[in-house]
Specification:
350 residues, 2 domains, 10-stranded mixed sheet, elongated, binds S-adenosyl-L-homocysteine
């Protein structure tokens, strides 16, 4: 990434050190009257050695460590952890102001994927989403996003290979902090940008704004419907954003960044999973170099949509394939741990 980004965050608290680059940390140690090489040490302890507090950094002189020890690094604390039989681990993390967010660690044979939150709650109020039912509290700061990835990495004692912004919140309502987090995860935590996926329900003008950063991260768009009327029924905010405008911004994103956009399509039995929906969807995506991820609905308490049966899912998939659209079915992992979509927070903080 060519452009340098101001990662500073304005609050009354001293800025957390997590989220800062090597050069920013080096400046900070020098401001404390320490030699520059302490910046490198601090950087390694924050991003590789799992320091949770400045007091942990045993290579620092004791007297200095104690003098600066109260300054927050910016790490969260664990509020609750549950593990599903498929080894998916779901974390409720407590932020510095006491608010709780969800993070999920999803291991597969070769990968460790982290599903991060970008906001506390979410204002989008999508009808099928547990987070949306709980309302919105605030945006996360970039270090609070990076902390989620480090927390999972340290817990699994395994390098995180992929990060998806598919936890709580709408990332494109928090672009500045999300982009700063992407930059830090890439440069400081060492995760390839192409292994980072930003998922959005689509906000007018925001995909265009994101394109300007020319990230190599993957953009996933939660489409969920094959026509405008159905989309408005499932996603209230869609009434201010036509399907045509959303797809147009996606096309611009592809031409500006050279990256593909993938589409998420939740499957709700009898609502958006009919053969005619598959045909409509294929029509919209004609000429798009894309990948469609079908997500069979993961039931939540508040609404009674149903997950379609295997045959319906297969039929929908085959229609898209006949139209030469690359398609995968993505079952939510860790359902036993309430691990999908805002459910654990709902069940543990009621
Ligand atoms: N706000 C962003 C990212 C968070 S949601 C977005 O909308 O893309 C991440 C994905 O989980 C989205 O595709 C979302 O629609 C999907 N999702 C939400 N609730 C779900 C549920 N109950 N079952 C299956 N997928 C769900």
């Amino acid at each position: 990434m060519g452009t340098s980004l101001d990662r500073s965050i304005k609050t009354n608290q001293p800025e957390p050190l997590l989220g800062k680059s090597l050069s920013e940390l080096t400046i900070w140690v020098q401001q404390q009257g320490q030699p520059a090489y302490r910046g490198k040490q601090l950087y390694q302890w924050i991003y590789q050695k799992g320091a949770r507090s400045l007091l942990d950094i045993s290579v620092f002189p004791k007297q200095w460590r104690e003098a600066i020890g109260a300054r927050p690094l910016g790490r969260s604390s664990l509020h609750y952890l549950s593990t599903a039989p498929d080894r998916t681990r779901k974390y409720l993390l407590r932020l510095a102001d006491g608010l709780i967010i969800e993070t999920v660690g999803i291991p597969t044979a070769k990968r460790l994927t982290v599903c991060v939150s970008s906001q506390v709650g979410c204002p989008m109020a999508c009808d099928f989403c547990a987070t949306g039912k709980g309302g919105f509290t605030r945006n996360l700061q970039s270090h609070e996003i990076v902390d989620q990835v480090l927390t999972v990495q340290e817990d699994f004692q395994q390098r995180v290979s992929n990060v998806v912004f598919m936890g709580m919140g709408e990332p494109l309502l928090n672009i500045k902090e999300v982009v700063a987090a992407v930059k830090c995860l890439n440069e400081d935590v060492g995760i390839g940008q192409r292994s980072l996926t930003i998922s959005t329900v689509g906000i007018p003008g925001k995909i265009r704004q994101l394109a300007q950063y020319k990230l190599q991260a993957t953009l996933a768009v939660s489409l969920h419907a094959s026509n405008q009327k159905l989309r408005e029924q499932l996603i209230p905010s869609a009434n201010r954003y036509s399907l045509g405008s959303l797809l147009e911004e996606c096309r611009e994103y592809v031409s500006k960044t050279g990256r593909r956009v993938s589409f998420e399509y939740i499957l709700l039995a009898g609502v958006n999973d009919l053969p005619e929906n598959a045909h409509q969807l294929a029509k919209h995506l004609r000429g798009f170099q894309t990948h469609v991820n079908l997500i069979p609905y993961n039931p939540i308490d508040e609404v009674d949509y149903q997950r379609p049966d295997k045959q319906r899912i297969k039929a929908f998939t085959e229609i898209l394939q006949e139209k030469h659209i690359a398609v995968s079915v993505r079952y939510s992992r860790g359902l036993e741990a309430d691990a999908a979509c805002g459910q654990l927070r709902a069940s543990q903080t009621r």
